[in-house]
Amino acid sequence: MFKATHRIVALVVILTFVMMGAVQAQGKKVIYSSRQMGPDDIPTLDPAVAEDVPSIQVISQIFPELVRANELTSANEDGMATVSISDDGLVFTFNITPKVPWVRYDAASDSVVVVTDENGNPRYVTAADFAYGMMRSLDPALASYYGGVLSKWVAGAKEYNTAGEGADLEALKAAVGIKVVDDYTLEVTASKPSPIVESIFAMWMTVAQPQWVIEEFGDFWIEAENIVSYGPFAIKSWDRNAGGSLVMVKNPHFPGSNAIPQAKIDEVVFRFLDVEAQFTAYEAGELDVSEVPPSAIARIRSDAELSKQLHVDPGSGTYYYGFNVRIEPFNDPRAVLAFSLAIDREAITTNITGRGEIPAGFFSSPTLVAAPTSETHPDIAVSYNPEEAKALWEAYLADTGKKSSDFALNILHNNSSLHAAIAQAIQQMWKETLGVSVNITAQDFGTYLSTRRDADIFRAGWLYDYPDTNNFLFDVFHSSNDPDTGFNNAEFDALVEQAQVLSDTDARRELYAQAEKLLIRDAAAIAPIYYYVALNMTKPYVERTYSVIGREYYEKWDINR
Amino acid sequence: MATKSSHKIAYLEAADLPKPQSLWQSAFKRLIRNRLAVMGIFVILFFALLAIFAEQIAPRDFRTQVLAASNSAPLWVTKLFPTMIPISEGGYVKINEDFFFGADNLGRDIMTRVIYGTRVSLLVAIVGPIVALLIGVTLGLISGYLGGWVDNIIMRLTDVFYAFPTLLFIILLMAFFRPTTGRFEPGSIGDFFNRLDGSTGGMLFIFVGIGITSWMQMARLTRGQVLSVREMEYVLAARSLGASPTKIMLRHILPNILGPIIVAETLTIPRYISYEAFLSFIGLGVNPPTPSWGAMISEGAVAIRDYPNQALFPALALFLTMFAFNFVGDGLRDALDPRMRGAE
Amino acid sequence: MFFVLFAISVVTFVLMRLVPGGPFNTERGVPPAIVEALNKRYKLDAPLVEQYIDYMQGLLVPRLTDRTYRRSVVEDYIINIPMDFLGEGVALRWINFGPSLAKRNQTVTGIIRDGLPTSMQLGIAALLVGVVIGVPIGTIAALRQNTGWDYLSMSVAILGVSIPSIILGPLLQYIFGVTLKVLPTTGWGTINHLILPAFALGFTESALIARLTRASLLQVLREDYIRTARAKGLSERVVIGVHALKNAIIPVVTVLGPLAAALLTGTFVVETLFGIPGLGRSFVLSIGNRDYTLIMGTVLLYAMFLVVANLIVDLTYALFDPRIRLH
């Protein structure tokens, strides 16, 4: 009960604070953004366990990585360190930017303050903090998904990360190839030489983590009143509910570099809103940046003012249909290809999604390093071709002696009006072109995930973790990942394994093109539908960059009001 | 025991012979004298005919998508909603006169879908109240009249069902009985439910949901009403004359409390329809592309700012139906009120 | 009361574990080793009965803890009574809803503590809107039965039921937020933020209340005691206000009980439309996420509100109508 009254007092204080904040905002540069956030709470700010776009968005602002992915080109730049790689491509030596202090937001003085140790000296981000961060991500007890991704690339990490009960954890830990040379030098040994390894250090699970805070507060170290960080922004407040918000403030103690400059904006307020609510709030002047609901796109394009505020960027993923190749008729690649070629992707992207999505010719998104595209490999890319689809399907029927009506097939999708609309359009396309009637089943997300392995046909999407084609072709369809479609092809496995260790991008692209040819044509298991796009509405007074890597760098933004 | 009680009822019925069926007969007479109620009946009949002869009446096929015409509207609709400015006037709305109410985001005729949607929505509007009345009124009567431990058990049961996680239950049923694959082992229980669901156009789970959620409010309402009339003179009189509890409940209490119950029931009809919409919204309702008003409203609602016609035409159909049910409900209430009997 | 909560807890616990899928499934496909480790971490690999007893113990049994409290998400209690005389940081703590399984650094207790006050504020405001609009409209309609006033009131009421908040919400946002710019469209924190969502939520309920009030009042007005009261020469205001409305309100109150429980624990649609940090969305999403502890927490909370609301309803019966004897 004591706690309850306490809460109410706190609530009143916050309310007053919010109202005062709105007035104070005149002198400060505050940006209200919903981009990337969605209607629900940010799941976590813990770099070791983060898996989703909103969490990673905030983490990249408060815990910058050793290697920073450029948001415009997706090329790797020096982040918190300069990196040198040994000639055999195995040893990565990071020279960490010295004297970047750990900071936290102090509510009493309404400012970001430097964290000090027991002796009153500032705590700086050191090689040991990065080593601790990586080791914590790999900790088998934490069971982190991206800890598992990291473990594939660091020597000895796999053994530690997957250690079972009764294993000698200390010995396994000592064998991991992460070595602190001195305060500002970190040495990491890769498990194999590959152009991909550097991209791994541009990911959130490899950042520095504050050991002393984590040990003091346990699971609650990420709460706004406990968290310490070192990036261009610090956490001011975090209202953890659907419809809540997270406020980041500028960290004046961050030295800034080419790739990660000091922030120009004083505060970033992330509001958790669903896309329709975002756009309404944007139109009402409550948000400076928002996403765009599909229904509004025609009006925005026709409006002189709004159309100037709209920006369409390539997204970071692919929407596709998976086919269960363990069952008839999809155990014959001709059938899958026929179904794939019968989909009029153009009609879907112009009339249903309508936001400028690009019809997909490949599974790999064209923004990835070493990805084959419709320009580089036009004869492999799939596109709408009803004649060929019909011919393939008829050939299949003739060979097997079956009729279209023999098949009772079903499309599975998770609930969403967009998935439902696309499924219904595809249902009609297959009926018209191939004469096959399919059913549609919508399930809630949990059921969908746990049953799609048994589905005949299912809708799916894949967004990249790091911008390399390896993250699409190897990480999804290599047989070691046991893909839900049942796709299992030795030739494909060999191609993507080979591409992993090559350093020449063009040679890799050629290998990936051959792998794609298997995946979407010769041993087809999927039909790529379209590449996602990122749509932004931005008020004219916001000066910004448009990211292609799936997260924004607010430290590069400014407001001119 | 059984024979004895049925004998008793038969005896009591015989005693009532001087005015056989008078309650319902005179009620019907009074109902058809109520002009608004009759109008309501005609509106409901109109929608019922739409539902039955949808194939003949609807201008198009409810499934056919003309993707090029998605989100288009005829000129008169853009005049009706002035915010929908046609492309020709510098706006964004595609003009297409082929679709009288406009086309939805897949280029399907909204008018056709409203007409077909009558089927699901009317069925829900009729089945919902019947389920609620049968279960709810029975339990409410027993609970309110008998009181004591019977009342206690029924009310606790009601509370349990109120807080019952229906959504969870329906997801569970869906996961087991809606096929992820096109194949089900013939003769299995999954196959049985799948067929049942298929033959009702995917409405099985809606009915299950309504069955679980509809009756509690009715039970509580009935009980509250029974409590308020239980000690009335006419009930006391009937009791002192030795009438059986069943007879008191059905002949003396029920007619006197029927008014608010019927009104409450006609009022809850939109709840069933919006429940269906909610289920359709989360994907647990009718199988697409089968249209229903609720699903059309919830799908159209996201585009209400830009294409208000997509949600408001089905909402208008819903409004008219509600209006009709409302007047019929009122008429029924007046007609069934025993104190109105012989008033004319 | 305890029986209801017990029954609901068992039913929910069993149902949610029967539904396919689990809290750790993602579209990416999580390696079995990780799922296994997570199951172990949250003790989901224990027998079901053991898990249930474990959960109920955390919820019901108070315990004394020292200052190491709140180190892990397993420990977070709603009620904390400091007992510093037993040692620094020692406190008696009660009601722990357990860790959220879908949000790895959050507790269900925390989610409820943050969301419930918001949902309750909105719920009370919506109930007020419902009653303040509904009862007068219903009364006017009943007193002026079969006149233009009656038809107008009822048209408004029926409109209210036919236009669900999913349509009314965006319309209100567009009119008052985007076009007139007088009220904020989204967010939470000031009275201004409360108006639109409370109206969107309450209008539908007001329609229900208006119709019930009208029907019930019409019935009451035909009762003998009203005739007696009028015959005694009491003013019409006293007859309606004191005698008739008091009796007519019973069916309304019956409906109000569960309605209040539902409104106070949050509503998915309105919270999503207006970006309100309440509990309603958490509840619906917890089911989609298979966040077992959050499902249990929100269902039990709702059940508790419901039981209490219905108890209050029963008590008000006696208040409004002394002839009703309570058993």
Helix/strand layout:
The complex is a heterotrimer of chains A (561), B (344) and C (327).
Chain A: H1 2-24, E1 30-33, H2 53-62, E2 67-69, E3 76-78, E4 81-85, E5 91-96, E6 103-106, E7 111-114, H3 127-138, H4 145-151, H5 157-161, H6 169-174, E8 178-182, E9 185-189, H7 197-200, H8 211-217, E10 233-238, E11 245-250, E12 267-271, H9 275-283, E13 289-290, H10 297-302, H11 304-309, E14 310-323, H12 333-341, H13 345-353, E15 358-359, H14 386-400, E16 409-414, H15 417-434, E17 438-443, H16 445-451, E18 457-463, H17 470-477, H18 490-501, H19 505-522, E19 526-538, E20 542-543, E21 558-559
Parallel strand pairs in A: 1-12, 16-17, 16-18
Antiparallel strand pairs in A: 2-3, 4-5, 5-9, 6-7, 8-9, 10-11, 11-12, 13-19, 14-18, 14-19, 15-19, 20-21
Chain B: H1 2-15, H2 22-33, H3 35-52, H4 54-57, H5 75-80, H6 110-146, H7 148-163, H8 166-177, H9 189-199, H10 204-213, H11 215-229, H12 233-240, H13 245-281, H14 293-301, H15 309-336
Helix pairs in contact in B: 2-15, 3-6, 3-15, 6-7, 6-10, 6-11, 6-13, 6-15, 7-11, 8-10, 11-13, 12-13, 13-14, 13-15, 14-15
Chain C: H1 2-18, H2 32-41, H3 48-60, E1 63-65, E2 79-82, E3 91-94, H4 108-143, H5 148-162, H6 165-179, H7 191-221, H8 224-231, H9 236-264, H10 268-274, H11 280-289, H12 292-320
Antiparallel strand pairs in C: 1-3, 2-3
Describe the structure in your own words:
With 561 residues, chain A is an alpha+beta fold. In chain A, 34% of the residues lie in helices and 20% in strands. In chain A, β2 (67-69) and β3 form a beta hairpin. In chain A, α18 packs antiparallel against α19 (505-522). In chain A, 55% of the residues are buried. Chain B is mainly alpha-helical. Helix content of chain B is 69%, strand content 0%. Chain B is built from 15 helices and no strands. The longest helix of chain B is centred in the middle third of the chain and has 37 residues, at 110-146. The radius of gyration of chain B is 24 Å and the shape is globular. The model of chain B is unreliable at 1-20 (pLDDT under 50). Chain C has 327 residues and is mainly alpha-helical. Chain C has helices at residues 2-18, 32-41, 48-60, 108-143, 148-162, 165-179, 191-221, 224-231, 236-264, 268-274, 280-289, 292-320, and strands at residues 63-65, 79-82, 91-94. In chain C, β2 (79-82) and β3 (91-94) form a beta hairpin. Classes of the chains: A alpha+beta (561), B mainly alpha (344), C mainly alpha (327). Chain A binds chain B through residues 276, 280, 293-296, 298-299, 301-303, 324, 327, 347-348, 350-352, 354, 407-410, 412, 414-415, 417, 420-421, 423-425, 427-428, 438-444, 446-447, 451-452, 454-456, and chain B through 63-65, 67-68, 70-71, 85, 87, 90-93, 105-107, 171, 174-175, 178-183, 281-284, 287-289, 299, 302-303, 305-307.
